[in-house]
Amino acid sequence: MKLWSGRFEKNTDQLVDRLNASISYDQRMYEEDITGSMAHATMLGARGIIPQSEADRIVQALGEILEDCRAGKITFSEENEDIHMNVEVLLTERIGDAGKRLHTARSRNDQVAVDLKMYLRKEIDTLQEKVRTLIAAICDKAEEHLESIMPGYTHLQRAQPSTFAHYTMAYAEMLTRDLGRLADCRVRLNQCPLGSGAACGTTYPIDRAMTARALGFDKPTENSIDGVSDRDYVLELASALSILMMHLSRFSEEIILWSSYEFGFVTLDDAFATGSSIMPQKKNPDIAELVRGKTGRVYGHLMGLLTVMKGLPLAYNKDMQEDKEAIFDAVDTVCNCLDVFTPMYRTMTVRTDRLRRAAAEGFINATDCADYLVKKGMPFRDAYTCVGRLVHDCIAGGKTLETLTLEEYRAVSPVFDEDVYQAIDLMTCLLGRTVPGGPAPDMVRAHIAHTRALLPSA
Predict the structure, then answer these.
(1) Cα separation of 197 and 228, whole Å?
(2) Which of 214, 226, 328, 435 is disulfide-compatible with 39, CB 3.0–4.6 A?
(3) 196 part of the active site
(4) Residues 53, 276, 392, 450: which is the catalytic one?
(5) DSSP 88-102
(6) Catalytic residue among 155, 166, 247, 392
(7) b/e map of 370-381 (b: 16 or more CB within 10 Å)?
(8) Residue closest to 252 by CA, chosen among 277, 218, 286
């Protein structure tokens, strides 16, 4: 018999039970459910709402159930619908009628809200640590390649001089913003809904601040209706995870391109690549491709959650049970992707010779050549036109700016002199970009140091 069956004359259909049950996925919140119940029982005893002796028995028995769950000694039942009912049934089986007092001044509506917040708070902490580890890996490899010149790109066309360090630290910057989004979500999440009841609080003299403190929340929620019907924190986390996955997907796309024969900028470690069942020469970047593909999965969960919530009247509606599978899978997916992406990145080999060759062949010093003319007094638009003609001539003649003769330069503009070769040298171009945020080694070194300062546990 279900704990809520008092006003019903018939048992629910088995198909209804199957659709209604959530224990298959919300059992992962057993620790949060039990610790939340322990805090609630402690408060009930302290306020004299239930006898202190019974509160003590409840807390002790819940602690024993928690240890049994951790030891794998508990099997949850679909008949009891969800983790909340399963724990309450176990408690009552162990201590009898005293266990039935636990749910005094509480609803499953505020219970599930506090469980989910506590669970996601813990997962956010885990996610932040995994992101910090990846950022540290990017910083480590960047320090090895401060002077590894490569092209910077726009429109996937070679554009201006960069370095592998400068290029990849762009992803460190993106991931740093992801850390900020996760931290912001955690702050807004960390208000305790326990005590909101089903929607409109309770007539019992509970102490919401006491349970909030006991469970590590900053304060109780301000409105009991919002306390049980709010899922903004789930949506916000799903949004932050979607942006994070977008960054991982972009980075994966770079690695997929870079590891191809056409680019050849990096070589993936054998432990993080796969082969073909028919083509013996293949070494496929499957890990990066899977991360790129799983991004759509996380996006889908965000859209699903937004759709679930978009038309719900206040307060709680059963639709909101759909929040858990989506956010749990989104969190799991991102954690799994970070777990494998980081060692893949750490172990890949950067082919500096191929980077340098690409830099030498792409006219990435054309802007610097134009700037050379500007510094000698020519208006930028005229300088732009002159260098555009030079590039056109180089392409036609199979040359580069470095291999043009001074006579060929002067045929376009008499302003050119011998010092043009020093001005367009790739290392000169790189070292001259000392604007904060630029690719000059000292600037990137400062960026790495700034980024590491944000990673106290990395």
Answers:
(1) 8
(2) 214
(3) no
(4) 276
(5) HHHHHHHHGGGGGGT
(6) 155
(7) bbbbeeeebeee
(8) 286
User: What are the CA-CA distances from residue 184 to residues 187, 240, 326, 448 (Å)?
Assistant: 5, 10, 21, 23
Q: Which pLDDT value is given to residue 277? A: 86
CA 36/CA 112 separation, integer angstroms: 10
450 a catalytic residue: no
The whole-number pLDDT of residue 2 equals: 56
* Alpha-carbon separation of residue 436 from 425, 433, 440, 453 (angstroms): 21, 9, 9, 17
Phi, psi at residue 363, to the nearest 5°? 55, 35
Cα(54)–Cα(116) distance, rounded to whole angstroms? 27
Tokens 């546990």 correspond to 457
Residues pairing with 160 in the sheet: 152
Burial call 219-249: b when 16+ CB within 10 Å, e when fewer: ebbeebbbbbbbbebbbbbbbbbbbbbebbb
Q: pLDDT tens digit string along 320-371?
A: 999 999 999 999 999 999 999 999 999 999 999 999 999 988 899 999 999 9
Longest CA span, the chain: 101
Residue 422 C-alpha from the chain's centroid: 44
